[in-house]
Amino acid sequence: MSRIHCERCLRPQTHCLCALIPRLDSRTRVLLLQHPSEVNHALNTARLAALGLRNAELRVGEVFEDLEQWLTQPGYRTGLLFPGEGAQALQAYAGDERPWLLVVPDGTWRKARKLLHVNPLLATLPRVTLGALQPSRYRLRKAPGEGALSTIEAVTQALNVLEAPALFDALLRPFDALIEGQIAAMGQQTYERNHLR
Predict the structure, then answer these.
(1) Is residue 14 included in any domain, yes or no?
(2) Would you place residue 126 in the very low, low, confident or very high pLDDT band (cuts 50, 70, 90)?
(3) What's the Rg (C-alpha) of the chain?
(4) Which residues form the DTW domain (predicted)?
């Protein structure tokens, strides 16, 4: 017998995170492009980010036929939040500067790169990155490299930089609860043995 899931956060009903998910306004628009393999992942952080931001949209797929239409948002300048050669570090908005439409690929590094490969329009976008990174709170996964963040952490840090002094840390409440729940489910000893080395 399968467990009943919340239709909004997709978590099992007994572990629903909806009470922890904020509804935050932002000048910045966030377009999350999620690889299909991430949809049923226990820590689906792109979905949490989309639910927590009023000016965000989550699209799931590999090839996005409507991508050009999604990227043409009047009043926004578009950037791909993804490291790479020539990527510029995000900086706080100055006065009436046009806000960003941040396109954020969601998946493992390999799957995110595949999204860029099979959607050539993404490769034409200017790349933007985070300058000084806060350390990841994702204590259950070994990062593939220095500065690797979950999608929700990257979005939160980007918004904190762009819209300073406003803070978007409330987006991380359900993420932190997910991590704590996973640790509790595996037991502290198992967590320490497998993740604190």
Answers:
(1) no
(2) very high
(3) 17
(4) 2-187
> CA separation (Å) from 61 to 23, 64, 113, 117?
25, 6, 14, 13
As a dihedral over the C-alpha atoms of residue 33, residue 147, residue 117, residue 105, rounded to 10 degrees, the angle is 0
CB neighbour class for 108 (10 Å; exposed up to 12, middle 13-18, buried from 19): middle
Find out whether the peptide bond into 165 is cis, omega within 30 degrees of 0: yes
Total domain count for the chain?
Answer: 1
Residues 72/125, Cβ–Cβ less than 8 Å: no
Q: How far apart are CA 193 and CA 197, in angstroms?
A: 7
| 55 phi, psi to nearest 5 deg | -100, 45
pLDDT digits (tens, 9 = 90+) for 46-87: 999 999 999 999 999 999 999 999 999 899 999 999 988 889
Q: How far apart are CA 132 and CA 99, in angstroms?
A: 20
Total length of the chain: 197
Q: Count Cβ neighbours within 10 Å for each residue of 34-56 and write b for 16 or more, e otherwise.
A: bbeebeebebbbbbbbbbbbebb
Residue 186 structural domain: 23-130+149-195
Q: Above pLDDT 70, what percent of the chain?
A: 85
What is the rounded CA–CA span in Å between residue 107 and residue 5? 22
- Domain assignment present for 138: no
pLDDT at 192 over 80: no
